[in-house]
């Protein structure tokens, strides 16, 4: 990452350096992440001959799809100045819900798909309601919802895995189109839409504005509560989508799945340069953050590093990424 | 239709109660188009509440609002903005990580099909607005890179960008330079020509008399009256606001100066100030004047150890001392009342008692380190009486007190340590005139009791009224020293602008 610093310093010329640095802060951040990602890839391709093979690269994308979709969802909530700690449980309950209606020769595949996403929407709406109307801290609301959703998953599944799912349902997580895994295609669509919404629409602008200064946004005539509520709904809906992919990929509705997913998602967001205080960040950064985590996981797997050490390394990377970020913004 | 011609805005019988408090009772306000209408009153008189009702921030109230002769009732700020009422808020409301253009057009971005932001149009319109308020800045500059006064001018640009028929300006000049004030007044004159009405709120009397056509006075949530500005004198206006004659705002007392307590020699800090030398004697009040950004706060912060300095010496009672942290300064007997009391001075959700004793717990805890509640209550109650702090008990939370009383608590914190030098940075910022007078008397009593006092202030009347000697800073340099006898506003201003 030291290389990165040199790079940014050389990219300016003499006096106007400081100004361009400030103006293009976001862009530089993204470049920094790309460079970090390439660096990590370079290291692993040097250490393992398998790493750069197309099947492995596609495998990485497939593996990061669920975490990336969750991370994009929670980016909306974090940008607006909130947090959602329940993502892993939402994945479990929406996955179970979908699986219940995905047995062969029962319902068309669109039914479980819609149920998973609508389940996520409902969870997000409840979270958003308590945050905006009851004025409860998002940390507490979603902590409660995390337990509620986990319990709900166990209730709907009666505590057992829901297996025997239809072929078409299992394609969602396991199929491919033109050689590209369907989860990767879904991720690409989610990313592109989120990117455009945040960057080009008034709605996206309001997300940043509220995260930057809620009172000022209200004073500018923005219907702050509606926007906050909607951000939780988006987060919930994407968690439902992730739950759907998860259940389909493991061909089971698993009530115990997804423990700790929220932390991986939040880690991706933070590594991606989004401020936990809200108002600053991009989904591009989030996806790059998720990719960096995914590449490191994959690389360490290829090198047969024990999963115990992998956790330690991941933790150090999160703290390290924030340190570099702090140094850059100073 | 006849009505329409006379008043653009009418508020009648406005009553608003908060739990336990009657904030406004039966207040009225009538604004003619194309006029500047000053809304005056002490802090807590209900000006802000009245304005928040007007712009839809408090949708529940009793009474009626008429706009252009029609009765209106706003459910939220958006409705008020849409109909043509905008406001420059007293607290800066910029979003730091967004650009000037994004801030100005927040909530009303030019857009295709109501969804897609038209960046180009937005930047173009922003450029026009910035020209109009005399700011030569790129619309894509981030707000966090602007100075406080530039931010304030952007707020002004934002308020006029709504093309409103009524613009509320709440303390618009509290953070801007004289040149920018002139620019603002030019804009106000233009707006008046276009039949826009301005509701102007300010503590600065000279501005009110310069710019306003009519004045409405509120006191304790009640309507006192509406007057033509030309028919009022400053004294009459103040009397209406405070409800009593306010004589001797500044106490005039003969002073006995004692030994020199503090001397600063050639103090320098890169990018902040240089060559700062002065001294303060026991019983003396030294005022430090200068424009915003002149380095006044930095100098006193360095003396207090809150900021470092690069070169120079500080002598305390004739001995050279090293002050590296506030703890060093406090141990010597120097205390500072910071300019930002909410940030450095008070813990708002704690009680009066807890705030006062926070840095002084050693006074009331013995060897055991346990705090003696009885001693604590005693010293707190003594201070409350001595400084006549208006609070029901020492247990009241500080956030529930008025600005003036909060400031007294910050001062009390320092006094409990019985310091020899007291530095007060902007001691009356945001405090109403009645409480100001009390703080002035308190400062004067401190000097009388033999303390050496340094007062930093942007308000010239305050500096002139209080100080025995006045130091003037300009861009980090000491440009002059004036005695009480020779100082006047003009001389100070000339030194402050570097003349």
What does this structure look like?
The complex is a heterodimer of chains A (330) and B (499). Chain A is mostly helical and 330 residues long. Chain A has helices spanning 2-11, 17-23, 25-47, 54-79, 87-100, 110-132, 138-156, 167-174, 182-200, 202-212, 214-219, 224-249, 261-271, 283-302, 307-329, and strands spanning 176-177, 180-181. Chain A contains 15 helices and 2 strands. A two-stranded antiparallel sheet of chain A has the order 1-2. In chain A, a hairpin with a 2-residue loop joins strand 1 (176-177) and strand 2 (180-181). The longest helix of chain A has 26 residues, at 54-79. The two termini of chain A are 16 Å apart. Chain B is α/β, with parallel strands linked by helices and 499 residues long. Chain B folds into 2 domains: 2-242, 3-Layer(aba) Sandwich (Rossmann fold); 260-496, Rossmann fold, CATH 3.40.50.300. Chain B contains 19 helices and 22 strands. Chain B is globular, with a radius of gyration of 25 Å. Chain A binds chain B through residues 22-23, 200-203, 205-206, 208-209, 212-213, 215-223, 279-280, and chain B through 57, 76-78, 81-82, 87, 89, 93-98, 102, 106-109, 111, 114-117, 140-142, 145.
Features:
heterodimer, A: 330 residues, ABC transporter involved in vitamin B12 uptake, BtuC, two-stranded antiparallel sheet, disordered N terminus, B: 499 residues, Rossmann fold, 6-stranded mixed beta sheet, 19 helices
For the CA atoms, what is the radius of gyration of chain A?
Answer: 20 Å
Principal-axes shape call of chain B: globular
**Biggest beta sheet summary of chain B:** 6 strands, mixed
- What is the CATH architecture descriptor of chain A? Orthogonal Bundle
> Biggest interface in this structure?
A-B, 23 and 28 residues
Order of helices and strands of chain A: HHHHHHHHEEHHHHHHH
Q: What portion of the residues of chain B fall into strands of 2 or more residues?
A: 25-35%
Number of domains of chain A: 1
In order across it, which strands form the biggest sheet of chain B? 6-9-10-3-11-12
Give the CA-based shape of chain A. globular
Number of helices of chain B: 19
Largest sheet of chain A: 2 strands, antiparallel
Might you state the CATH topology name of chain A? Answer: ABC transporter involved in vitamin B12 uptake, BtuC
* End-to-end distance of chain A: 16 Å
Q: Tell me the name of the CATH class of chain A.
A: Mainly Alpha
The CATH architecture of the largest domain in chain B can be named as 3-Layer(aba) Sandwich
